Amino acid sequence: MIKKLRTMLKKGKVLAAAALIAVSSAVCSVAASAEDVSAPAGSGNMEAMLSDAGEQITGQFNSLVTTVIPVIIGIMGAGLVVFGIFALVKLAKKIFGKVAG
Predict the structure, then answer these.
(1) Alpha carbon distance 1, 28 (integer Å)
(2) Res. 68: pLDDT tops 70
(3) By the 8 A CB rule, do 34 and 53 touch?
(4) Do residues 53 and 30 touch, judged by C-beta distance below 8 A?
């Protein structure tokens, strides 16, 4: 039981690290594209720049979610199929063991 818990915690750390990397890459993307914003020097157009950065973060997050969700659903579906196959094999072993014995 403790071994399974440790394995789950390790997987959780990997998941948290992957999420952190995804968020930091989105922030870097926003920062890189914020440099392209051409505001006149000394105009004090900080509100427009922050609004644009917020919209870009939202757009990047939406694209990340729309990309990751189908992958997660596919992985879960494949895992469910594998689990079902193992359960059927275990059930078949039990039934054939009773019939043969």
Answers:
(1) 40
(2) yes
(3) yes
(4) yes
Q: Note the pLDDT tens digit of each residue in 25-49.
A: 766 666 666 555 555 554 558 888 8
Residue of higher predicted confidence among 89 and 100: 89
Specify the amino acid at residue 80. L
Report yes or no: 60 and 29 within 8 Å, Cβ to Cβ. yes
H/E segment holding residue 62: helix 46-100
CA dist 81 and 17 (Å) reads 28
Are 30 and 49 a contacting pair, CB within 8 Å? Answer: no
pLDDT above 70 coverage of the chain, percent? 62
